[in-house]
Structure formats: structure tokens, C-alpha cells
Amino acid sequence: MSTQEEQANIGKVLSFLREWDRGDRTVRSRMLNTFLSQNTGKTFYELELEFAQVASLFLARLTTWMRLTYMFGTFLGLQLKAIGIFLSASGHDQYLMEFLADGGVLTLLDILNHTETKEEEKSEALHLLLTVSNAGRKYKEIICESHGVKAIAECLAKSNTDETQEAAWALLESLSHGNPKYQNQIYKGLIALMTCTSPQAQQLVLHTLHTVQSKMKTAHHSIVDPLLYMLRSLHLEVHNQGKLRKCLKPHGDKLVTD
């Protein structure tokens, strides 16, 4: 790109940011729709080229707007999808680190806890948290340090759609791998979920609990009553996860109390 082209691109980006800063929510929603249609699937370096090396300025504005307005549901789904373009951009984790530094994980967890958040918005927030978790151990720990396991587990237990339940389960599954510091916390969170009322949620939880239990040297005593409760379930899909009993057999004489 020539110097003249670079100057023209910088001018275009500055004009874009000015329009964003001056625009109302209708203008911003239009800009986000355009951003989504033009930038979905782009890498970090492609976004940097598109935004004249200052894409971070737009991400910061977008994150701040979401944090200030998510309680009112102002284009939340659109905001989450736009942020997803940055977090999923391959080639570098700069956007991910900036999002976390700006309190992004806490905002996403607050969105899960907010009673007015729609199911599809919760699902989108869970997908973003999964992107964070899949980035590596230190990112998993940030989610857990922010009391994420509890928020995600409650979302799984209370959700009334398959999509949100599966997204919450996928996130717990991701957090359970390569995260030794918080393995016990996740394990206890899964045990607590065994008594939730949704058969699908129970089935998903058992799948992950089987994997986590196989890594534990002992079985926690609190698993016994929920397991017996589930074995009395009339739902065949829950019974199909009966392999958990086999997993517990080697630990039968090694129940721990804390």
C-alpha cells in the first residue's frame, strides 16, 4: 500500500470513528451490520489493515457501549456478534487481551446473570466465553477467578432452550480441560448440577462429569445422593450415561468430605 493509499485509509477510519462517536443507537446498529457483513472471518492482520492499525480503538468503543447498555437490551446480540469478530480473529491474541483488560469477561458473565437477557443473547455470550477459554490455560483461569463456573452452571440449569444449554455445557467442558488450578471447583459445580430438572442438562453434565471424575484420585462424598437421584430418573437418555457408576467404582472406598 502506497503512502497516499495509507493516508486515505487513515482518513476513512477516522471518519468511521467520528460517525460512531456522534451517532445514536440507530446509526451504530447500521454501522455494526455493515461491519459484520464486511469483516466476518477476517484475521487479526486483515482487520489491522482494514482499520489502519487502530482497530483496537473501535473494539474499545464497542466494548464500552455494550457494558453501558446491556441491561437495556440495546442491540446486545449485534454487539456480541461484532465483538466475536475481534475475539475470533486468528493470528494474534491482542484483541482478546484488550477485551479482558477492559473487563470483558465480567461483562459477559453479568449478561448471563441478568434476568432480562434473552436466550439467544446468552448463547452468544457463552460462545464468546468459549472463545476466551479455548485460547489457553491463563484465559480459563481468568473466567474461573471471576466466579464464572457458578454463573455458567446456573445458566445451564435454568435455561429453557437446547442451544443455550449446549453452549453452557461446551464452555464447562472446555474449562474442565487443561485447567488444574480450578479442576476441583469445576468438579463440585458439575456435582451441584446433577439435580437440575432438565433431562438434557443432566445428560450433558454427566458426560463431562464422567471425564472429570476419571482424573480425580478420589470421589467427593456429595456426589452420592445426586447420583442416586439421577439413577431414579425416568428419562432413558439420562440412564444412558450410567457409565458414571463405572467411573466411581475405583473410588468407592475413597470418598472425601471436603
Automatic annotation (TrEMBL):
User: Where does the secretion signal sit in this chain?
Assistant: none
Q: Which residues cross the membrane?
A: none
> Which Gene3D superfamilies does UniProt cross-reference here?
Leucine-rich Repeat Variant
InterPro entries referenced in this protein's UniProt entry, alphabetically: ARM-like (IPR011989), ARM-type_fold (IPR016024), DUF5578 (IPR041090)
The record's listing under PANTHER family reads: ARMADILLO-LIKE HELICAL DOMAIN CONTAINING PROTEIN 1
* Protein name as it appears in the record: Armadillo like helical domain containing 1
